[in-house]
Specification:
The protein is built from three helices and five strands. It is globular and about 35 Å long. The termini are close together. The relative contact order is 0.24. InterPro entries: PQQD (IPR008792), PqqD_sf (IPR041881).
């Protein structure tokens, strides 16, 4: 199971259903749309890709493959920018 560790240098501010992430180390901002924000919020609570997938499948009317792709893509981009780390557990 993959676990997600969010960097301690990231601040999050919700703006309606969207979120803005601030990387304090680099001084850069990232905007997340409503689904990206839901993914981010779930990852903050569960730190688990599997639990996040299951939680969002129960909350949104979206097919598993679409959500899995969105989740994988977003976490990959967050990792690329140093906002999260992935760990096998």
């Amino acid at each position: 199971m993959l676990r997600v560790q969010i960097s301690t240098s990231v601040l999050t501010q919700s703006v309606g259903k969207e979120s803005v992430l601030l990387d304090l180390k680099k001084g850069t901002y990232f905007e997340l749309n409503a689904m990206g924000s839901a993914i981010w919020n779930s990852l903050q609570e569960t730190q688990s890709l599997d639990q996040t997938l299951e939680r969002l499948l129960s909350e949104y009317q979206v097919d598993r493959q679409t959500l899995q792709t969105d989740l994988t893509d977003l976490v990959g981009r967050l990792k690329e920018h140093g906002l999260v780390e992935l760990h096998n557990q």
